[in-house]
Amino acid sequence: MEIKRICCIGAGYVGGPTMAVIAQKCPHIKVTVVDLNEKRIAAWNDVNTDNIPVYEPGLSDVVAAARGRNLFFSTEVDKAIAEADMIFISVNTPTKTYGVGKGMAADLKYIELCARQIARVAKTDKIVVEKSTLPVRTASAIKDILDHTGNGVQFQILSNPEFLAEGTAVQDLFAPDRVLIGGDTTPEGQKAIQALVDIYANWVPKDRILTTNVWSSELSKLTANAFLAQRVSSINAMSELCEKTGADVNEVARAIGMDSRIGPKFLKSSVGFGGSCFQKDILNLVYIAKSYGLNEVADYWEQVIIMNDHQKRRFAKNIISTLYNTVSGKKITFLGWAFKKDTNDTRESAAIYVADDLLSEQAHLSVYDPKVTEEQILADLNYLDTRSETENTKGIIVENNPYAACEGAHAIAVLTEWDEFKEYDWQKIYDSMLKPAFVFDGRNLLDKKALEKIGFVYQSIGS
Ligand code: NAD
Ligand code: UGA
């Protein structure tokens, strides 16, 4: 079966970049990305591709190359579904904020709405692809909904989780470590798998395209994120022990990373992992394990989150205790707000929680991030609902110049590892600050020796 038209529901951080790359690599396929959010679609269609809603290095060029040729962004969801041979569901699956499973389970209401809409609109056979990260066995719920439409259309459901990381999305999509496709073991299921394999085979080497049953594919995605996050929590746990013992976490990470069984990646100690997925997916895994009565399994993975919360909290606590046990009325500058460099995404960023703790201690925060807007920063704080919006607005100033952000500050906290922070004129920053001038480097990014030579009191994580 040759796929000629693809529809992707959800034009977010996954739907936008993945479909742009499929369109660029497969000029013979028409790809339409749809979303209910009109503002987001308008931004994807902005004549100036620098204004697309997702900031990712290299993405605007990919979009510019394919948009209007075989890549389209639209709010006409029904039309795109009706036309398509293959439909990717790439909507958000956040942690539930209400009812049973509140704070743990994935909220599947958007997924179900998509399934119902496909069921209502489809008049021809379709392959439906789960691109969103979903709890294991979601495909059976989607199938249940699709198989009860009564209009005789045949649906095949595939699981094709996305492994891209933000900040390197284009690179990850161009050269993925692997592409995972799960489908039914029936002949129809195998045909559907092959149709999707053929799409990726336009640029991904065949030995990197892995096919499994649906449940393995769904569960592998949660497992991969749990393992990655677990490495960060493990090294962060060691960072606290390093601080007590005189060991240096960077040296420890290097020493263990050279063991080929451990490997060097994902061993960077930090103020804590953020992003929209690690926490959400682990909580979901914990919830699933509990729902099967696997309490030890659930507790094991929950510890990764507990450790991460501790790491964020102790960073804030250390700032307070180092600044003579009070930050009330003191200006503290945040360099960085995004959850990692090279993205404008702030979801679950450690910066939000550290800021919240410091604001509760009446600090005056000044924030500079090269890609995050003031509107977003305030929205992130307001979402926590710790204090009124007016109080948040009073407690925080967002600057678009890093030097202005640091002027007159008691301390600087580095929350994101943006490369440009390394290039600043740190002498100039020092001269403009109150003394003693403190730097709390939550990313172990800056040059300790150089900063100490200037006169800063410099503290990093894990040494
Ligand atoms: P996102 O919030 O950026 O985008 C989701 C989009 O779906 C939104 O624009 C929303 O308006 C739209 N949407 C929701 N319901 C809709 C409906 N019924 N019809 C049309 N549009 C609808 O989310 P994201 O970061 O792209 O994540 C999407 C999924 O991919 C999640 O399950 C996530 O876990 C997974 N994932 C994300 C990443 C990542 O780096 N962000 C990586 C791998 C997997
Ligand atoms: C992560 C995974 O890496 C992707 O494979 C996955 O597709 C994605 O989640 C998802 O499902 O959403 P992402 O969250 O975009 O990608 O970024 P990561 O590079 O994994 O970083 C996550 C967080 O961990 C960031 O806050 C980062 O700063 C932190 N981190 C990462 C560390 O503190 N130390 C490290 O060594 C690595």
From TrEMBL:
Limits of the UDP-glucose/GDP-mannose dehydrogenase C-terminal domain: 333-448
tRNA-binding listed as a keyword: no
Residue positions binding substrate: 162-166, 221-225, 261, 268-274, 339-340, 443
Superkingdom per UniProt: Bacteria
Active site: 277 (nucleophile)
EC number: 1.1.1.22
MF-aspect GO terms: NAD binding; UDP-glucose 6-dehydrogenase activity
Reactions mediated catalytically: UDP-alpha-D-glucose + 2 NAD(+) + H2O = UDP-alpha-D-glucuronate + 2 NADH + 3 H(+)
Pfam families cross-referenced by the UniProt entry: UDPG_MGDP_dh, UDPG_MGDP_dh_C, UDPG_MGDP_dh_N
Enzyme class per UniProt: oxidoreductase
Keywords noted in UniProt: NAD, Oxidoreductase
Function: Catalyzes the conversion of UDP-glucose into UDP-glucuronate, one of the precursors of teichuronic acid.
Protein name: UDP-glucose 6-dehydrogenase
Organism for this UniProt entry: Flavobacterium saliperosum
